[in-house]
Write a structure and sequence with these properties.
mainly beta, globular, 0% helix, 4-stranded antiparallel β-sheet, 11 strands, 7-stranded mixed β-sheet, single chain, 122 residues
């Protein structure tokens, strides 16, 4: 079983920044495409960002384009989500996701992290 653990959530004022991290125990981390989803109170889980393993290509939800950056460091088995210009509507539980290649953002997630709370005050 693949273990994913998120960290870096917290409370931040609107306009501020926060960086989330997701670490995984697998040695073959480079064989996984990675992503982030979020679920706000009263809302369904939604896609936020994803990054491919083979070439580092990234994809973002329209709501976060230009503000969020997803990246990965394979040597650390870690994927990051840098969140800038945060808005109150970004408040949600953010979860890390892993897809075994070649699966990607439009496929069912193979492994989920437990989630980390991000709260943005106005």
């Amino acid at each position: 079983q693949v273990q994913l653990v998120e960290s870096g959530g917290g409370l931040v004022e609107a306009g501020g920044s926060l960086r989330l991290s997701c670490t995984t125990s697998v040695r073959t981390f480079s064989n996984y495409n990675m992503g982030w989803f979020r679920q706000a109170p009263g809302k369904e889980r939604e896609f936020v960002a994803a990054i491919r393993s083979i070439d580092g290509t990234t994809d973002y939800a329209d709501s976060v384009k230009g503000r969020f950056i997803i990246s990965r460091v394979n040597a650390k088995n870690t994927v990051y989500l840098q969140m800038n210009s945060l808005k109150p509507e970004d408040t949600a539980v953010y979860s890390c996701a892993a897809w075994r290649r070649p699966n990607y953002k439009d496929s069912p997630v193979d492994y989920w992290g437990q989630g980390t709370q991000v709260t943005i005050s106005s």
